[in-house]
């Protein structure tokens, strides 16, 4: 009888745990997609709340994600130039939402193309054309899709073929976007010489910038711009912290496995964390993280980041591929501890 009773207890415990696991799975928010081929957008939803929108409209020189929202619906990205808001910076119109490009690919500037304004192209600017999205997988707590892009020169000739898998994860107050991008060269070698203008970047909202007493160009409600000095820095609350313990503007040009940008929007704690992947070229990456709102990881801008002491000229041989992986963690409410950030970075590194 004791043996039978023991078996009953074990079976009951197992059934309860299985039921609990199913309940926990059912309680996870659903990650779904809404594609609009005419608008050239693919929306990512967590239950009934927008997380981000993937965009490849004709007035863009590259696909971008804009906006990017926290679990509490705060936008961490700058609106200008797609949806400009009064009081935000009106500089660098090619820095839109979240993107992946580089400033020197066989002499072409993919990073800075469109710097004259939305819908413009530069004489030496490369274009990243969206080809297709596929394998859309919706689910509880996570979803994914694959996107293909063509990196083209000024005449439309393809230099690189990009294939990226995007993975979206919803965990409590955390929203996670993972991207694994594989670039494949065509019939010729692809040269990517050393430049600070790259590579994976986000242009953040005004409140997440670092305080600055310099001259800035601000967007006005009537659509005009004004150059001024914001000496008060009201509600400008951003600050960087790297995995190496470096903070503030000193993060620029240093190497780290991750960097956190932390601040407040309308009194709400906001964090945006970018994690580098250990299999990326030249890991750990250098950080092209500026106070004015550009938050970027660039493994190849070594000359500028080391004041000329070193250089790193990367290339992809003809027919060969190179893969770049990045994780973005968007957190609101209770701030993530350093230990938790390391845990999430380690989980990404194991993929």
Radius of gyration (CA) equals: 22 Å
What global shape is seen?
Answer: globular
Please estimate the helix content.
Answer: 10-25%
Number of strands: 21
Sheet having the most strands: 8 strands, antiparallel
* N- and C-termini, Cα separation: 48 Å
Please tell me the overall pLDDT: 93
- Secondary-structure-based class equals mainly beta
**Major sheet: order of its strands?**
6-8-9-10-21-17-16-15
Order of helices and strands: HEEEEEEEEEEEEEEEEEEEHEEH
Task: Specify the number of helices.
Answer: 3
Index terms:
single chain; 351 residues; mainly beta; 12% helix; globular
Question: Summary?
Answer:
The protein has helices at 2-27, 302-305, 338-349, and strands at residues 30-36, 41-46, 49-55, 64-68, 98-102, 127-137, 139-140, 142-152, 158-171, 174-185, 190-192, 198-203, 215-219, 225-229, 239-242, 258-265, 268-276, 286-289, 294-298, 314-316, 321-332. With 351 residues, the protein is mostly beta strands. The chain starts with a helix and ends with a helix.
Describe it for me?
Mean pLDDT is 93; it is low at 1-23. The protein has 3 helices and 21 strands. The protein is mainly beta and 351 residues long. A hairpin with a 4-residue loop joins β18 and β19 (294-298). It has an 8-stranded antiparallel sheet, covered by helices on one side. A 5-stranded antiparallel sheet has the order 4-3-2-1-7.
Secondary-structure topology with pairs:
Layout: H1 2-27, E1 30-36, E2 41-46, E3 49-55, E4 64-68, E5 98-102, E6 127-137, E7 139-140, E8 142-152, E9 158-171, E10 174-185, E11 190-192, E12 198-203, E13 215-219, E14 225-229, E15 239-242, E16 258-265, E17 268-276, E18 286-289, E19 294-298, H2 302-305, E20 314-316, E21 321-332, H3 338-349
Antiparallel strand pairs: 1-2, 1-7, 2-3, 3-4, 5-12, 6-8, 8-9, 9-10, 10-21, 11-20, 12-19, 13-14, 15-16, 16-17, 17-21, 18-19
